[in-house]
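Notes to self after the Tuesday call (sharing in case useful).
The group wants a holo model before anyone commits to mutagenesis around the pocket. I volunteered. Ligand is iron/sulfur cluster. Logging inputs and output together so the record is complete.
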Amino acid sequence: RDKGVVQWKYATCGYCSTGCAMEVGLDADGKAVTTRGVADAPVNRGKLCIKGITEAGILNASGRGTEPLLRAHSYDPWQSVDWNTALDRTAAQFQRIQDKYGRDAVAVVSTGQILTEEFYTLGKLVRGVIGTNNYDGNTTLCMASAVSGYKRSFGSDGPPGCYDDFSHTDCLLAFGSNLPEQHPVIYWRLKEALEQRRFPIIVVDPRVTMFAQFADIHLPITPGTDLVLLNSLCHVILEEGLADEDYIAAHTNGREDFAALVAEYDPGMAATITGIDEDTIRHVARLYAGAGAAMSIWTMGINQSTHGSDGVCAINNLNLITGNIGKPGGTSLSITGQCNAMGTREWSSCSGLPGYRALENPAHREQVGSFWGVDPAFFPEQRGRFMTDIFPAIESGQIKALWLVATNPMTSMPNTGRIRKTLEKLEFCVVQDAYADVEATQYAHVYFPASVWAEKDGCFTNTERRVNRVTPVSAPLGNSRPDLWIFNQLAKRWEQGRRMRFPESASEVFEEMKALSVGTGANGQPRMLDISGMSHDKILAQRGIQWPMRDGDETGTPRLYADGVFQFADGKAKLLALPWADNNEKPDSDFPFWLNSGRVVEHFHTRTRTGKVGNCNKFSPTAYMEMNPDAARELGVENMQYVRLVSRRGDAIVLAQLTQRVPRNMIFVPFHFHDCVNRVSLGLLDPHSRQPAFKQAAVRIERV
Ligand code: SF4
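Result:
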């Protein structure tokens, strides 16, 4: 429909990690009125999903913050102030609290939503100026287990594969990933590949998701037992001589201990734990090992678990023993969540220092310190608390001030009743967000109105390591400012910040990141995350470039580890022995249902944007829970009846939708809605990644 568009400007979608390239249509007044996919973009080839199609609506959505706000107490009314007043107050309060309680009494929790240049600058500010080690992103709620697993198996974070692998694979194994709803355009890429040639799709998921309905084989696994299944698949592959022993010998360490461990996971035993019968486990193992190229993808079904990191390593084990890393169609590909979860992993310094450098490595501290003009001794020698440990530290009084950047823990964290009480304990809280009505502002003393998505300039990195551009299609709304500007202005409030260089434009920041990206990795090869061959202009011209792209390269790199050289010092990957522990909260007589949560296609995260946008909200206006009709009959619950969902943490009122998609002992609730599923979730933590097990908790249903 003609919406009076007179000009189109380039952007990358600001919702999920698929990384769809789009153009934003502007009317004669310069107002963004619509979007369309970019036909020659390598990721989406003109396609967008419902969120991308309606994305122009977020720029002028209700609730946008247009002025900085200030108040002395969280119960006082807000007062509009100028930027200098808000920034001065924030810097003074951080400095007062650090002087009184120590540097780590201030915590910073960011996001996967802002631009990479902004992440880099925030990291520089936090690590090089403010100096707290309590710094993390909300990616700990979604991708931390993938990061941890990649590091433990391959020596570095970084998804090895790409979407083009769908066009080369002979077998796809998906764990806890509902592509059609979570990543609709990746799903379209998969369907497009299947139109060229058939290959089996195996979906492991306790729920009959849309992806499970599409699969050739659906494995309705018992929640929390994926590690048992993976160990058992490896058991069969080794037992039946189906492994690629040449690849194992040349490119891995640890075979002996790994083989001894998986020997304990015969399919008969695994069947009793996973609920997947022995013959099916053997069949899937043979299918996977017998494929010329096989690939595994996963999302939150693996990551959000008490053994999420081990689950990722187990997927890597499966691919290493079958020689399926770094070859077309053979890979281990985490499907990331947020539009720039990768950007924060790469450059924000949350887990270390920029460019996949580690705080624990003295050479890395020295490199970054001398590059920034910061004494390396100023950096901590190990990473500090994860997001999920920051909130308990607020509760115990060790952290007194919190700066939230584009994240909404009041809806996204497990057990939000506890989070509410935790935030009330803060001496000082800053919320920086494009939307002033985000729930966490209830507890804030300062609100920074940030510009949103295509009001800003910079890059996102998608699931397949493709760096793509966002250009400023319209001016910041009201007196909101780009996050980059806010970080730079805040840096000037510290003496150390005034001594350091904080470039003002995104392209200058990108050039600085490029200079820091070069060097030699632990394996003696050039650093893996090398972007020195990229520039903002080249990225725009190629509609996105996959790193690494080194100076002199014409294009990016579709696959990592194609040469079989990994990021450990000896260049070999690790086969890890990963025993399964039965350590979840499980259904019992008081709370007889497994609680599962996930996305719906219309919404993104906590609905700060999609909850206000046309069709997204019209098509999915309210929370609901899926319940099996047989279980409902026993409890006298009717379709479309409100019920109370109860756990040991709290309760929530939800609309029941009766469906065979969930087994008799499971309840599924979308996680997007405030005061809903996370009032009851538990969130036990993975010991490696500190990611919460959102999908494994026990609940009961009460009629209301
Ligand atoms: Fe945006 Fe993801 Fe939809 Fe693409 S698939 S349009 S990146 S939300």
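Two things stood out.
Residues 13, 15-16, 18-20, 44, 48-49, 51-52, 183-185 surround iron/sulfur cluster (CB under 6 Å).
The longest strand covers residues 651-658.
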